[in-house]
Design goal:
Shape: globular
Structural class: alpha/beta
Radius of gyration: 13 Å
Order of helices and strands: EHEHEHEH
Helix content: 40-55%
């Protein structure tokens, strides 16, 4: 199981594409953990609600904290054998997870 942690602070313009790419190109079992780092825009809320309804985990932070604190909030709910961190503007490609797991298994 791979836990994919994606922090966002009103990154709605990229977040939807990031989520779609992870869903489409991740072949291993995975849990997507999105950390809402104090987002205020209704557009961001729309994509976070969509992610929740798709079964992904959304960790809500009341205010915008540092990147490391946002990541730590995601790690606090992570239970995967492997954990990866993606910015909300990252678009993964085919076999990205298989390559990562192969490298980590060495």
């Amino acid at each position: 199981m791979i836990d994919v942690i994606v922090p966002t602070h009103d990154g709605w313009k990229h977040l939807d594409l990031c989520i779609q790419a992870v869903e489409r190109f991740t072949k291993n079992d995975f849990k997507l953990i999105i950390v809402n780092n104090g987002s205020q825009l209704k557009e961001t809320r729309k994509f976070l609600d969509k992610a929740k309804s798709s079964g992904h985990v959304v960790v809500e932070l009341a205010q915008n904290v540092s990147f490391s604190k946002a990541i730590n909030a995601g790690l606090a709910v992570s239970k995967g054998e492997y954990v990866t961190l993606l910015n909300d503007d990252v678009y993964v490609l085919e076999s990205w997870d298989a390559q990562m797991v192969s490298e980590l298994a060495d």
